[in-house]
Amino acid sequence: MPGYRKLGRSTSSQRKAMLRNLTTNLLYHGKITTTVSRAKEIRRMTEKLITLAVKEHENFTEETVKAKVPQKDHTGRRVKTVVDGKKVTMYDTIDKTIKKDSPSRLNARRKILSTLYPVTNVPADGRKKRSLSKKIDMAAKMFDEIAPKYTDRPGGYTRITRIGVRKGDAAEMVVIELV
């Protein structure tokens, strides 16, 4: 008997892709609807990722670095001046505070990113789809939003609630959500 469920997929790459997608959606949205067997497999992956994020969420140092930022006028365009016959953008130097990961947190970040798919937040109205869409850093979301909620919790970060059978094939459906 294998240590995993086949979930109606013929190859392991298809199965892994489906589980990665469902796990990413669960962590992004907080709740998804799926079948019982898929939810149990998602739970295994999600609990491991959240545990990893909880262990490493405060393991960083803050450093102040100097950054060059282009000067902008009142309309938001870059200020340019002529130097030696060429137009050159003018820059200001500012002090910026950054989080520098420790080696163990960097390793955890890479493990999380190897499991989760990249997420793009698209505007709801569908207009200016490319210009207004933003890429979401799921590792940062795990460390900054999800992990602090579960620091005092020893495990059991998800809840599976049965909601009945699916109309087409009578598969048992559940809602899996973050507690």
What is this entry, summarized?
The chain is an alpha+beta fold. The chain has 5 helices and 9 strands.
Could you explain how this protein is built, in words?
The chain contains five helices and nine strands. By secondary structure, the chain is an alpha+beta fold. The strands form four sheets. The protein has a three-stranded antiparallel beta sheet. Strands 2-5 form a two-stranded antiparallel ribbon. Strand 3 (80-83) and strand 4 form a beta hairpin. Helix 2 runs antiparallel to helix 3 (103-115). It starts with 11 loop residues before the first helix and ends with a strand.
Total of helices: 5
Please, what is the average pLDDT?
Answer: 92
Helix proportion range:
25-40%
Biggest sheet descriptor: 3 strands, antiparallel
Query: Structural class of the secondary structure composition?
Result: alpha+beta
**N-to-C series of helices and strands:** HEHEEEEHEHEHEE
Envelope shape: elongated
Radius of gyration: 22 Å
**Beta-strand residue fraction:** 25-35%
Low-confidence stretches: none
Distance N to C terminus: 31 Å
User: Looking across the biggest beta sheet, what order are the strands in?
Assistant: 1-9-8
Q: State the total count of DSSP E strands.
A: 9
Features:
single chain; 179 residues; alpha+beta; three-stranded antiparallel β-sheet; two-stranded antiparallel sheet; 5 helices; 9 strands
Helix-strand layout with pairing:
Layout: H1 12-29, E1 31-35, H2 36-56, E2 60-70, E3 80-83, E4 86-89, E5 91-101, H3 103-115, E6 119-121, H4 129-132, E7 134-136, H5 138-149, E8 158-165, E9 172-178
Antiparallel strand pairs: 1-9, 2-5, 3-4, 6-7, 8-9
